[in-house]
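Might I ask for a little of your time on a matter of protein folding? The record follows directly beneath this note:
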Amino acid sequence: MLHNGANRRPPVREVRPAVQQQADDDVVPVFFVSDSTGISAETMGNALLIQFPDCRFERTLIPFIHSVEDARRVVEVLDTAMEGPITPLVFCTAATDDVRTELLRTKAPIIDLFDSHMSRVEEVLGVPGVRQAARLHGVGDIKRYNLRMAAVEFTIEHDDGQSLRALEKSDVILLAPSRCGKTPTSMYLALQHGLFVANYPLVDEDLEAEQLPDAVRPYLDRCFGLSTTVDRLSRVRNERRPGSRYASPEQCRWELRRAADLFRAHRLPVIDSATKSVEEISTHILQSLNAAARARRRAARPPGRDPS
């Protein structure tokens, strides 16, 4: 939903020769404003901005707009930006009515991501939402928040094979040679989804064996393999240990080949981290976990029972 200033300034981008489009004054100011962390504003706003690959953006996050006075100060910032050569984009997810009302006084065009969606949800449900800040990325749901924090603690403790204690509590165990993306994926799954994740680096001793390490073998149903390309792995390792055997293409090729053999022998699902983001890798893992849970429920259902 677009508010204010939409017809007061020229469009954000005009049709210009390609050379001129690279000028510094063609950088579009983008503001993400929120009465909470601003994560939702950034996520939804960037999902739209990525559709304009030829545009250049200068992004500014303004979170924690807790009061009308805070909102007035933000309006001053936005109105100042309107005096520049390029009309700014403002993505807003303020949930609190008085804060949002004050923000909408700006001369800048505001894309109100919260109200446009919230109003529709209220219409469908037939009941009003509470319209309070910090209910998604704040503490909000105490039980869910505490679960996520416990998951983060578990995941930190079990990062890179540092601890093998209480592996039976893990929801996911990631296996891969060093620098294949285990740690960022583990932390994302813990922080965003509250999953207890352990990750285990496959070193030469593990890769020379015919079996997976003893510590993880009892939990194959929760194990996932990560892989990548030789070039990418060598490049990443060279940033850490330039010119070392560890970073050589020959060593990387051998480790990835042996890891693939182990994953295949134990029928582990494998995800290529070279072609997928952490979010995509995590989504594939979540889908696999959900599919396995559905299969277990079907298997536990008494014969002849109506699936519904």
